[in-house]
Structures are given as C-alpha cells and as structure tokens.
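A further point concerns the way the authors explain their paired sequence and structure data. Nothing conveys this as quickly as seeing an actual entry. An entry of this sort, consisting of the sequence and the corresponding backbone structure tokens, reads as follows:
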Amino acid sequence: MAPSPSSEAVVTAAAPAPVGPYNQAVKAAGMLFCSGQIALDPASGEMVGAGDVEAETRQVLANLQAVLSAAGCTAQQVVRTTVFLADLGDFAKVNALYAEVFAAGVSPARACVEVAALPKAARVEIDCIAVLG
C-alpha cells in the first residue's frame, strides 16, 4: 500500500533495503516513523556480528542513524524508540551502546521487550519516531 498523499517515503542506500512491503521510514504530520532496523549490512544485505549482540547493536544504530540522516533528522530529534531483544539478558550491553547515541539532550521515551524471534535470527531490532524540523 502506498503512503497517503500527505506522507513521503524515505529511502537511502546507506541503510538496508526493505525486505517486504514497507519503507525504511515515512514522513507524515511533521513526524518521521522509522521501521525497525536489524544488523544488516547495507551493501551486502548480510547480517553483521555473527550473533555478537554488541556488534549487532552497533550496526542497528548505524542503520537507524542513516535513515534519520536521509530524512534530515538526527538522533536528538527522536522522541520514541522500541527495542526488541531476543534475550533480555542482553539488555545491559545494548543499553550501553544505545546511550551513546540517544543520551544527549532529552532521551527518547522507550519500550524494551523480549521477543521469541527476530528476522534473520537477529538478537536486536530498534525502531523509532522522530519530530521533523
């Protein structure tokens, strides 16, 4: 389904291409809605980190920042994130790397949940919402 006339898809080669019927992000109503990112290398489409949650988290955050940048945003404009973990035992490691990106200024509201599985056997996925402008 195509975005409504008042919305705009955000597409960048600096982040992994969507693997289904969705966009990397959509601008609508002064907001940016970023799809969840896993640790896919944008160039090869292969998973990064071989199950190392810290390496995966670094790639996830880099992918998310690439999408934000393509939309003209920074991490400081993010107001909400959701962190999906395959193992909540990884929370401290993921949180430390997350804080490097989202600790400046007002940190976004966040939910963090453990899930049964993520695409491509990823250990972490993060999505976000940002305010444009």
Notes: The beta strands are 7-10, 25-28, 31-37, 78-85, 109-114, 124-131.
